[in-house]
Write a structure and sequence with these properties.
Number of strands: 42
Strand content: 25-35%
Number of helices: 22
Radius of gyration: 57 Å
Largest sheet: 5 strands, mixed
Strand order of the largest sheet: 7-6-10-8-9
Amino acid sequence: MDWKRSTKKNTIMKNLLKTKKVRNLKSTIVCLFGLLTMHAQTEQDIASEANRLDISSRQEAITALSNRGISEAQAKQMAQIRGIDFEAFLQDYLNAKESNSEAVSKKTANTEVATELEVVPLDSVAPVLREPSEVMPETKAFFGYAIFENNPFGQKEYLVGNIDEGYILAPGDELRLTVFGDNNLELVAKIDLNGNISVPNIGVFFAAGSSFATLKERLKLFLGKYYSGLLADPTRTFLDVSLTQIRPVKVSVLGNVNTPGPHLVSGMATVLNALYASGGIRTSGTLRDVKVYRNNKLIKSIDLYDYITQGNIDQDIRLSNNDIVFVGPRGSSVVLEGAVKTSATYELKAKESLKDLFAFSGGLPASASIKNINVARITPFEARTQQLVYDRFLTTVDYARLQKSPREAFPLEDGDLVTVQPILEKQKNEVFVVGNVNAPGRYALDVFQDLKTLIHTGAKGLLPNTYLQKLDLQRVDADGNPSFKTYDLSSVLNGEVQVSLQENDTVRIYALEEVEGIKTVQISGFGTAPKTVFWSQNLSIFDLIFQAVSFEELDFQAAVLASRLDLKSFDEVTGLYDLTQYSLDDLETLKSTFLSPKDEVVLYTKAVTQALEPTFQILGPVVNPGEYPLGKGLYVEDAILMAEGFLERADKTTVHINRLDRSVQNGTYSKMVIHALDMDYLLGLKESPAVPYVLQNHDVITTFAPIRALQVPVVSVRGEVKFPQNVVLEKDAISIKNLVEFVGGFTKQANLESSYVLRDSLKMYIDLKKNYAKASNTLQDKDILVIGSNLASVKTSGAVQNPTIFNWEKGKRAKYYLNQSGGTKKRIESRVVLQANGRTQKIGFLKNPKIHPGAEILVVEKPAKVAGERGKFMDDFVRIFGLVASALSTVVLASQL
């Protein structure tokens, strides 16, 4: 078998390689012709061109090229540029195409012969399988199968129930014997293959074949011979026997179950246990005829409907080893729907009737109409003819008559659809009242026989805002003809009109809003969002304002425009609003002016003529600069207190005040005043400032402070000085000489030409030797002055033969140190000196800078040339030339269309 698999594998691999080779040759020939003709721009275009050319011989290839203005010599030259042997390539392509054509022909000629069988995984086929349930209506579930959804055997936890006295013992069962009283014995023993258990120091007892009840009696007699008091009267020694482990048995569950095959179950398992162990019955299987075979004989046929509908398990029997439980196909499918307790698809046995079907569904509900039950039946096979147009026919059954005749029945057949109609919704002796009453609904006619009694007593009277000039009475007579009558509601209620009611009358009472619409008034404007209020009699303008705003609030009183409010009164004749003006100062008039529906009151604010919230600004070094509300008679000193006072660095003697003075003609915005502050008033030492300045709306106060008012700059002096330390600067201008003298002066190794200043970790170049004695203002807070040292070394780096560190030699120049490092390399980009003080100097033919301590001589090498740059240039040239030629060809072809 192994050599067969190997041969088959080799054959498959050869076919794959051959197919791959054909594909590669085809792709290559397509690409070649696409390149030669300069037509193919995408892979899709290349594929389309290849399919269109369909080249089968060398002559066809040459002709195709010639038709595009390309000679054979030009094609070979262009192929050679791209590394392709034209002749060899074309020959391989044609041979491959011929072989491929023969293979296709052979495959076509043998389409009906299967040469190999492919094993398809079961998972890929499973979705194709269909259960018979799909033939039936999807909306009707199959009755009874839901008992297997909650499967207690899903995790193989076999339920065996209680151990009854009739259980027959067999090899594999395990017993626990307990003797107590005058004698003691604790023994766990398993029945062996010979059916025996061994009792130590006593002997062997045959236990198999006995029922559990018989075993207890036999054991008592057997042990009574050895334990005194066990058989005595009264008993002084007692015996307890229990089963600690029940033997497993193997049963086969076959047919329409979810996991058919052999299953291990408990020795006390029944047919129902075995069905659960197999995952339950599929909807294609029968619930009415589950067969049990033992020793190749049918010993029981179980109808699970007895268990499902009545909870009766009398038919369930205990299984033995090697029993077979077989679930055949479902016998029939009858659909029950309509006014029933359980709408589903049922399985009925032969000759079972509507009575049985209704019994299985739990009986008919009280709302079912039993006089006309529809049964839709499929025409039997034997009754169908070619001329028959309809394959179904409908029968209506009077089930009430069947119930009265026990001998009569209506047997059902496979495929029947039983529909139970509901009874009519109509109800006798009722009348209805709807609308604007306290208790709308239906009432008994024999209790409420007239309209007044129905409204007062039944509906609990009218709701407020009821329209009293009308009520409607809708009536339907015995023949179903509707009629409509209208009455005056007030006349009915006071007894002037008597109206008797009839069955199914409907009384409708209307609210005022339904007839006249909802009556409202509105208020809008200052102090309130647009608000709608229900209108009522004697609602005045003042009442509406009082409801909508906080009338007595000081903020409202201060900001509202008391001199005017408007009342817009709706004119029902013209449909327009009339405007009337009132004053909030005249409260008596407002209280005596009553509103009508759809009136609107509008309030205004003083902001229409004046600024209600004047402000000023204060800028500069104060604690909280910004914009503040302007109070009456506010001085400049008060404004500074509102900003929580000056910052420490601020100038506290004067401020600038800019007052709004906008002139478009002159191009001015404001006028500035310099105001001297009175600190005694600001501190509360006097009642008013010496020179009072009262602020106005939009004034801007500007405070200021000297530059670096609180700054005490500190610089650090390091390097070759006697006492390196931090120095506090007393003034802006200070010389390097003064700083050095302050820290004790230079050491013997100090070198000013190598000295520098560090600021923010960067060197700042200053010629300290030249500016040593000059008063300089270039030093800032946190600067570091570093005095260079003659002990600092000189370094050569970069493209020198031997990068080295040297001791500094006074008077030596850059080229001296380069020569000491073995000279420079050949390809040099630049040579520079990086002095310790941050200065950079070039080294040239006539430039040889003097070297100071701490300097670095850096030589930069030119980058190496990249190999193959010329060849890359030619490739780019050919590629770009090809793209240009393709574009020109497209332009020429487009111009010829």
